[in-house]
Specification:
A five-stranded mixed β-sheet has the order 4-3-5-7-6. A two-stranded antiparallel sheet has the order 1-2. About 50% of the residues lie in helices and about 20% in strands. The longest helix is centred in the middle third of the chain and has 29 residues.
């Protein structure tokens, strides 16, 4: 069983950002004694002192600062997992990598990117620039999910579909 839980890490983060147990309690919709108890319980479970209590302020110990930093990373990972699970459940990809020839710039797609994020705000778009046949190689090597503006007809052997989208040619 883990001795650290995400709620306790959120408490540490709030206390650090806001500077006091009372302010953290207010932000987290808890009473200050709950914040104090959460921190004390965490200190007891880990057998470390997280804060030096210099009333009315609290100051993180070195161990507390390490816990806070690593805890923030853990909370980000947990949030990413939650988002990924939600996206998978709704049928959306978590990331989409778009290959473009170097003659094109993602800035030429600003309105299309904006529309995409309006529909799929949690899908991360990545852009990869290649030149000449590098765009096709990126697709065949599965470094990209789709191509925009790839030169030529593409390599023989298939494994892709070519579609014209408005003024752009999209390769899947």
């Amino acid at each position: 069983m883990f001795k650290i839980n995400l709620d306790a890490l959120l408490v540490l983060d709030a206390v650090d950002r806001l500077g006091s147990f009372a302010a953290a309690a207010n932000e987290l919709f808890k009473v200050p004694s709950t914040i104090s108890y959460t921190v004390s319980k965490l200190e007891q479970d880990l057998d470390v002192k997280i804060y030096n209590r210099l009333w009315p302020k609290v100051v993180l110990t070195k161990a507390g600062q390490t816990l806070l930093n690593e805890g923030r990373n853990l909370v980000k990972v947990a949030e990413a997992i939650e988002n990924r699970v939600r996206r998978v459940a709704t049928g959306w990809e978590t990331e989409l990598t778009i290959g473009m020839d170097t003659i094109f710039s993602p800035s030429s797609l600003v309105s299309e990117i904006s529309e995409f994020y309006h529909v799929a705000p949690l899908t991360k778009l990545n852009f990869l620039h290649e030149s000449l046949s590098g765009t096709w190689e990126a697709l065949l090597d599965r470094r990209v999910d789709l191509l925009i503006g790839a030169a030529g007809e593409g390599p023989s052997g298939g494994g892709y579909k070519k579609n014209k989208l408005a003024q752009w040619i999209l390769y899947l």
